[in-house]
Amino acid sequence: MTLIPSVWYKTDQSNRFLTHVWCQTDRSKRDGRRWSLIHSEAAPIDRELLGPSLADFRESYTLPGVAYTSPELFAWEMRHFFDDSWTCLGRVEGLIAPGMRRAVRAGQGSILLTRDEAGSLHGFFNICRHRGHELLPVGASAQGALIECPYHGWTYRIDGSLKSAPHLGYRPGFQVSEHCLVPVRISEWEGWLFANVSGDSGPLHEHVGNLAAFMEAWAPRQMVEVSRMDYLVEANWKLIHENYQECYHCSEIHPELCRVSPPTSGVNLDATGIWVGGWMDLREDAETMSLTGKGGAPILVGLSEQDRRRVYYLALFPNLLISPHPDYVLTHRLEPISPTRTRVECRTLFERGVAARPDFDGRYASEFWDVTNRQDWAAVESIQRSAASPGFRPGPISEMEDAVYLFFNMVATSYVEGRLVRPKNPSMLSKPLR
Ligand code: FES
Ligand SMILES: [Fe+2]
Fold first, then answer.
1. What CATH code is carried by the domain that includes residue 316?
2. What integer best gives the mean pLDDT of the chain?
3. pLDDT tens-digit profile of 314-359?
4. Of 134, 97, 333, which is closest to residue 125 (Cα–Cα)?
């Protein structure tokens, strides 16, 4: 029987305050209810500071500054928001070719991905079973049938089994089979690869929820990466989410965007998974989001009349922002580095056949979004600088920021509950009074 430390909690009558009690439980006998209790660990942030973010929509305020600067809170988020859920690692195709292996950052640590010649993927902790050296530096890739640890030369096969441990000498009872690389749970959806590092999340399809059916019309699985824009943003990863969730700022900082999409348009959608998002209209004379309003690829087959005139902004927690356009899909993948720094991978995806045409040029999309991205990064970096100041105060949000509320209210509730909770739905929020 495997005994692991677990955390149970008690709540008061209002079901809010948690008391933690450490105990031991048999991992093999966990039921669904205990599952969520095991990872309950209230976040290291003063509960009083969260009150305004837990309030109803029209009375709420953004998160306190410490939520964007605290190393302890950041470590908690990596455990509970990233390791305990499904973190996006990128597009399978762009990440790792058959016969390759690659180390990628995921939450608190790194994962070694391997892909055999037949295309099957495996995920392991990027940790040697001898004394724990990383098998590859994060971001590095390598080729070949054997994985050799750079420290003392233990070698593993692509499936994680130990092949040799040189000069180990006589160790009675040593079992090669007990020293395989430790597997990490990975799963694919529409061409994106996800990892659940703790192994304790429900299945990926539950995490994605009704976003899966929604995305069917764009069929991202048939798309390829056409442009890659990588940024190092000096801001907390949550500020990037919050900025993505509103266009209140658009008329101030995005003149190019406002020429093709009215900043006041759009409505947010009800979600069954862990995602928040909605849509915005294209202006009558704009075909898509580009600097001229003109496109350079056919409108995707299968889109409704409505979807041909909209751009959606859908944030799949914790780190994949998906923006379907009439003719392409834009994505941002967030990789938090520290409380104040985030790596952002922005990609444009086009239908494979269109991208392969000799006369195809996808720069109309990437040039527009590179301009817009940089405007956004300047804004969130400015907020980050303010968040560290004793003069920073949480702000009242506008009714154009309902999705920002859904995001920070979910984060604040999760801090208090000690585990990731689903966002509220936009239809649950109070309607405008006029
Ligand atoms: S730590 Fe890998 S071989 Fe020693
Ligand atoms: Fe923006």
1. 3.90.380.10
2. 91
3. 999 999 999 999 999 999 999 999 999 999 999 999 999 999 999 9
4. 134
Element (H, E) at 333: strand 329-338
Task: Indicate the top mutation candidate among 112, 126, 127, 130 to test ligand 1's pocket, ranked by most ligand atoms within 8 A of CB.
Answer: 130
Q: How far is the CA of 317 from the centre of ligand 2 (A)?
A: 18
Ligand 1 pocket test: pick from 125, 126, 131, 146 the residue with the most ligand atoms within 8 Å of its Cβ: 131
Q: Could you tell me the two tokens for 78?
A: 């990596």
Residues 229 and 102 in one domain: no
Confirm if 20 and 8 have CB atoms less than 8 A apart.
yes
pLDDT band at residue 251 using 50, 70 and 90 as cut-offs: very high
Instruction: Give, for 226, the enclosing helix (H) or strand (E).
Output: strand 223-233
CB–CB of 408/53 below 8 Å? yes
* pLDDT digit string, tens, across residues 267-292: 899 999 999 999 999 999 999 999 99
Q: Is 376 found in the same domain as 254?
A: yes
pLDDT tier for residue 265 given thresholds of 50, 70 and 90: confident
Does the pLDDT value for residue 210 go beyond 60?
A: yes
Residue 286 belongs to some domain of the structure: yes
334 close to 321: Cβ distance less than 8 angstroms: yes
Closest to 87 in 3D by CA, of 78, 95, 96: 78
147 close to ligand 1 (CB < 6 Angstrom):
no
Do both 179 and 286 map to the same domain? no
Indicate which atom in ligand 1 lies nearest the CA of residue 165. Answer: 3
Q: Is residue 204 a part of any domain in this protein?
A: no
Model confidence at 402: pLDDT above 80: yes
The pLDDT value recorded for residue 266 is 81
Q: Is residue 24 scored above 50 in pLDDT?
A: no
- DSSP helix/strand/coil, 277: strand
Q: Which residue has the tokens 């969260």?
A: 50
Q: What is the mean pLDDT of residues 92-105?
A: 93
* Cα first-last separation, the chain: 61
Domains of the chain: total: 2
- Please indicate, yes or no, whether residues 260 and 177 belong to a single structural domain of this protein: no
pLDDT of residue 38: 46
Residue 284 lies in a domain: yes
Range of the domain at 96: 88-188
Domain-located, residue 414: no
Mutual orientation of helices 237-244 and 402-417 as an angle, nearest 10°? 150
